[in-house]
Write a structure and sequence with these properties.
alpha/beta; five-stranded antiparallel sheet; 9 helices; binds zinc ion
Length: 322
């Protein structure tokens, strides 16, 4: 057994015995074998086409070999690095285990101890910035404000405090959005968008979390800027938990195709003063999804998914605190 792997394994055994949260050794180039992960979670392993499938009674992890795609309990999660052969078996990078898979599966060991009280919702664009515009002239800035208002209503019904970065059709810079989250004392920040792509066939829903320092993003418009750490990286584990909770719920309620929990260094994620996610609720450049974006039932379904995802995260934190 590799020394790092051995250390991880021992830490987790200690954790399972109730001795507290382990401090995992950090090294972004280290590999963690899938057989180690399966042992750790007491999962049986099988293969299905190009996928390695690991499963126990509660959870499943599927990893596509030579690919960055994985699925946790059926929901797509993009890895920072592809799954590769290492030492005779398949393995993923330690960063993907520590900042993706393990926080999602063992959230209680990673969530912040502070009880989340204040959620800041950020409807994208506004004013002179329309965002994506569909063929039928559906404006992203309008659709996402309507969705954010619905999310707010659902959260407030659960006695969760909510602030909006904008409640009207006004222009805000990206910095103003992060600043307003900091000023409100946000415990969670969720930015709401609709997608646009050159290819009209592109469709589906996706949620972004901040990319880990030094790693490649997984947004469809490619990697931008430098790869150094941002403020948002201090919440890497919580970002993955929040993003996964939102994406799982969004896929369920929107019934659109699952483009996955992805990674990007969007300014609002990079500068977030708390765990943060950015949601893309469908493509305005896809005729079918543009029609859905002006349908009140679809907006409500998407809002339900986002609010259920936020409530799911808060429930995990509260449970971990007990
Ligand atoms: Zn947008």
């Amino acid at each position: 057994m590799h020394s790092i792997t051995r250390q991880l394994f021992i830490s987790h055994v200690v954790l399972l015995a109730g001795a507290g949260v382990p401090a995992l050794a950090a090294s972004s180039s280290e590999m963690v074998s899938l057989s180690y992960i399966a042992r750790l979670y007491s999962m049986g392993t099988s293969t299905s086409g190009k996928k390695v499938v690991m499963k126990n009674k509660w959870n499943s992890i599927e990893v596509e070999t030579n690919s960055r795609r994985a699925w946790i309990n059926g929901v797509m999660v993009w890895l920072h690095h592809p799954c590769r052969k290492s030492g005779g078996g398949w393995a993923i990078r330690e960063v993907d285990f520590k900042k993706g898979i393990d926080p999602i599966l063992r959230s209680y060991a990673y969530v912040p101890s502070r009880k989340p009280n204040m959620v800041v919702l950020d409807p994208g664009h506004g004013g002179k910035d329309s965002g994506a515009v569909g063929k039928r002239k559906v404006y992203e800035k309008k659709a996402v404000l309507s969705i954010a208002n619905r999310v707010k209503k659902h959260l407030e019904a659960k006695k969760i405090k909510v602030r909006m970065t904008r409640a009207t059709d006004t222009y805000l810079t990206l910095q103003q959005r992060s600043d307003s989250a900091a000023k409100a004392g946000a415990d969670l920040f969720v930015s709401i968008h609709a997608d646009g792509a050159a290819d009209p066939s592109a469709h589906g829903v996706e949620t972004f979390a901040m990319t880990a320092a030094g790693c490649d993003s997984s947004n469809h418009y490619g990697q931008g800027g430098n790869k150094s750490a941002g403020k948002g990286n201090q919440y890497d584990a919580a970002n993955a938990i929040l993003g996964f909770s939102i994406q799982s719920n969004l896929v369920k309620t929107s019934k659109r195709s699952d483009r996955g929990l992805r990674r990007a260094r969007f300014a609002v994620l990079k500068n977030a003063p708390c765990p943060a996610a950015l949601v893309e609720c469908g493509f305005l450049t896809n005729p079918e999804e543009e029609a859905l974006m002006i349908d009140a039932n679809y907006r409500e379904a998407v809002a339900r998914g986002i609010s259920n995802g936020i409530i799911g995260y808060i429930t995990l934190v509260n449970r971990a605190r007990k």
